[in-house]
Automatic annotation (TrEMBL):
InterPro entries documented for this protein: cNMP-bd_dom, cNMP-bd_dom_sf, RmlC-like_jellyroll
Stretches assigned to the Cyclic nucleotide-binding domain: 15-132
Highest taxon of the lineage: Bacteria
Name assigned to this protein: Cyclic nucleotide-binding protein
Organism whose genome encodes this protein: Elizabethkingia occulta
Pfam families: cNMP_binding (PF00027)
Position of the signal peptide: none
Length: 191
């Protein structure tokens, strides 16, 4: 399971054989079934997850008790409640497997050890966190400036497999609309 992670890392930095071994020893492989909650709101996120296969979402409940999906992560990639993971503070989000998932996970303590031991991992970690910040800024801007149809079209263009793997209510919530609006937009796009 570590091959995809090492491949992603080596696209950005050079790893020695020893650093590859550290990657395998610090990132623990785990497998979860569909609909498994892997991190709960109100608790400090224990892990940063690398998605080898499957789909994972971050969500919280609004004041009406409705689930609001804030992030859907497609493989390969990292996911956690970043701010809370980095600062080791309780999160207001839940992390849940949408499909069966193969993941690699690392604790904050072990990530810190890996970064201290290896400048390559430090550089890669900075790159991942910068990418996360950039993604979140772009997402905020898109929610504010793009129409619902534009957001939907952009999503299916960038992640064409998402519709086959993620329930429409999660996609609608992620796009900032209700499922009826998404259904109407999908019908218009198909025409």
């Amino acid at each position: 399971m570590h091959e995809k992670l090492i491949q992603l890392i080596t696209e950005r930095v050079i790893l020695s054989d020893e650093e590859r071994e550290w990657c395998a020893s610090y990132f623990e492989p785990v497998v979860y079934s569909k609909n498994t909650s892997i991190e709960a709101e109100g608790k400090i996120p224990q892990y940063l997850y690398f998605i080898v296969s499957g789909y994972v979402r971050l969500f919280h409940q609004n004041e009406k008790g409705e689930e609001m999906t804030t992030h859907i992560n497609c493989p390969p990639g990292f996911i956690t409640s970043y701010f809370n993971y980095i600062n080791q503070t309780p999160s207001d989000e839940n992390l849940e497997c949408i499909t069966d998932c193969q993941l690699l996970r690392i604790t904050k303590t072990n990530l810190d050890k890996l970064i201290d031991k290896s400048s390559a991992f430090k550089d890669f970690s900075i790159s991942v966190f910068q990418q996360s910040i950039s993604y979140n800024e772009n997402r905020s801007k898109e929610l504010a400036t793009l129409t619902a149809e534009q957001r939907y079209l952009k999503l299916i263009k960038e992640y064409p497999n998402i519709l086959q793997n993620v329930p429409l209510q999660y996609i609608a919530s992620f796009l900032g609309m209700n499922p009826k609006s998404l259904s109407r937009i999908r019908k218009q796009v198909i025409r």
